[in-house]
From TrEMBL:
Belongs to the organic radical-activating enzymes family. It comes from Hungatella effluvii. NCBIfam families: PFLE_PFLC. Coiled coil: none annotated. This is Pyruvate formate lyase activating enzyme. Residues 15-277 form the Radical SAM core domain. It catalyses: glycyl-[protein] + reduced [flavodoxin] + S-adenosyl-L-methionine = glycin-2-yl radical-[protein] + semiquinone [flavodoxin] + 5'-deoxyadenosine + L-methionine + H(+). It comes from the Bacteria.
Amino acid sequence: MREGVVFDVEEFTVFDGPGLRQTVFLKGCPLRCSWCHNPEGLSGGPQLMVSTASCTGCGKCREVCRHETCISCGECIPVCPLHLRRIAGERMTSGELIRRIRKSSDYYARYGGGVTFSGGEPLMQADFLTEVLCGIPDVHRAIETSGYCEEDVFRRVTTHLDYVMLDIKLFDAALHKMYTGVNNERILRNARILCEGEIPFVIRIPLIPGVNDNEENFRSTAKWIAGARALIKVELLPYHKTAGAKYAMVEKEYRPAFDPEQAVWVSQKIFEEYGIRSEVL
């Protein structure tokens, strides 16, 4: 039985696939998007998060710490008088996660939903994810993914899915690498697999001001996915200024390579030209 690292399980989510759902967030991501709003999902292992803005510097955490550098042991958490410390990331076996999902899967099914796997990038834990998916074949199974993985991994995991939400953040390869740290060749190849397949899917575009919120990017994406039989819609997700709120909690600095105060440009007409339904979330 494989072990994975989960950093959150949200209940009653309504924007992560059809119906009312559970969303399971798996740790680890190969991208480093300038606008990432889940910095605690980037690294693969459990890590300490501290609400430093509210810390009074009482020193209780240092009194109990027995390590020169943090190993996310959690010994400092119960002694914090303001409860400002927590571990992001819990190691779970596939069986443990299956049981947790099944506790409320019947309830979500009554509302047309199921479970969605997000991240981080859930495909970084492909073997663990596959075991979980195989253990819940009667539950509606969805994924939110960047699509950045090898083709064989993508095909193997999506075989067990009922619904896929895949990001095409930037169509231009050079710009994609500039703002996410990786080339988009694998992503577009896996998007083509969806376009040629039968699994219902959604393309998501996070709208980043001055980066990808322009006609050229929208039109290039629309051309790439136009005519796909299983495409349900394109979802446009405007950038939220609160994206950098958690960076200090994991000892990172939020330094977006764009102006977060700039308003995003949103247009659904381009997708309509190609017969694609679009929605702004």
